[in-house]
Amino acid sequence: MENGKRNSLNRHLKGLFALSPMAVLLLVYLLSSVLAGDFYGIPICVSFVVAAVYSIFVVPGKPFRDRVGIFSAGAADSNIMYMVWIFVLAGIFAASAKAVGAVDATVALTLHLVPGRFLPAGIFVAACFISMSVGTSVGTIVALAPVAAGLSEEMGVDLALMISIVVGGAFFGDNLSFISDTTIASTQSQGCRMKDKFKTNLLIVLPAAIVTLAIYLFSGISMDYNYDIPSVPFYLAIPYLAVIVCALSGMNVLKVLVFGILLTDVLGLFFGVKFLALFEAAGDGVQSMCELILVTLLAGGIMNMIKTAGGFDWLIERMTRKIGNRRGGESIISLLTAITNFCTANNTIAIITVGGIARDISSRFGISPKRSASLMDTTSCFVQGLLPYGAQILMASGLSGLSPFEIIPHLYYPMLIGVMVVFAIVFQFPRQ
């Protein structure tokens, strides 16, 4: 009896020690951010470096060089390197498209299609479309928040409402876009096709988008506003439209991005953008992804060290001990994603960190990869969309001069997708 208890205690201590790099990662980031008084004052990559160095010591009984080799093998995993490829190309495409004016053209095109008396609903649709096109919530907020603020001042609409509409719509594309970091991370970590994840994910969040749109339609139905559309050639939006069409057709994401980059550069050269400027934009795009690439590599190494030390097996065993169905497994995936996102204030990094565990849980309980990817992505966008210290709300706050806590009460879409995650798990829809 005593030996059994002692062995059980030793297994628990060994499992906790194996998982301790994750605790170190979160504690270093949280404590340093709290001490600095700024959750973005300490680069997230520093926390990952500290956790990576620490993780080398959680695999006892092996020479130091072998432990470094285990870490390196995890960082060089084929799935990790595929993500790196996509991050690099996505950065180049985004920067190149901005350099040729495609971002401004996309904003102008969407505003051109917005009926004046349905301003709140129109801005929400515009934010959804732009975020789907550019694949970044922050980029959408940067593009549309100044427009929303100007319209609010000119038309007398509540500024906090207008800014929150942009932020909510931005998370629609952050969650669903084929070139979004969260989509890339969730699909690659779970081993599913982006098209399959998109279909499943859309069925989960579409009711939330419809309800949100109905709220904005009702609130703006009595409004009748006119506003000036920026004078930008609409044809410059072709690269974004082409990327959406190609991605929806099922083309490989790397091919989609390469095609988008080539189309953008050809369009830019044709309309007078200098060759050197396109190269500089491409370089800026790669540099913008450097921290995310480094974090991805370090996360891959840390996860491999934890796996080798038996941390994932112990965690799954403990968390799934009293769970005998798929609902419980999906609840754990969503809960782990939410907790990690809350601590890191970065939805992409939360998905990368939890991805390996989620894949093992999915395999054990028969959860399809597209469903686990959808739950992780949607949960992370729900948490990130309501964090007062998240990059998106801080960006919106800075551009509008509002406090984050003035914006959050109006963030209907992020709130509703959180509700839809719960409904999807409890009522098991869409059916697998």
Helix and strand topology:
Blueprint: H1 2-36, H2 44-55, H3 64-75, H4 78-99, H5 102-112, H6 119-134, H7 137-155, H8 159-176, H9 181-190, H10 194-220, H11 238-248, H12 253-270, H13 275-288, H14 290-308, H15 311-319, H16 326-344, H17 347-365, H18 369-384, H19 391-400, H20 404-407, H21 412-427
Helix pairs in contact: 1-2, 1-14, 1-15, 2-14, 3-14, 4-9, 4-12, 4-13, 4-14, 5-6, 6-7, 6-8, 6-10, 7-8, 7-19, 8-19, 9-17, 9-18, 10-18, 10-21, 11-12, 14-17, 16-17, 16-18, 16-21, 17-18, 18-21
Provide the β-strand percentage band: under 5%
Q: Rg, please?
A: 22 Å
Unreliable segments of 5+ consecutive residues: none
Number of helical segments?
A: 21
Order of helices and strands: HHHHHHHHHHHHHHHHHHHHH
Helix content: over 70%
Overall form: globular
Q: Which class best fits the helix and strand makeup?
A: mainly alpha
Number of strands: 0
For the sheet with most strands, the description reads: none
How far the N terminus sits from the C terminus, by CA atoms, comes to: 44 Å
The overall pLDDT average reads 84
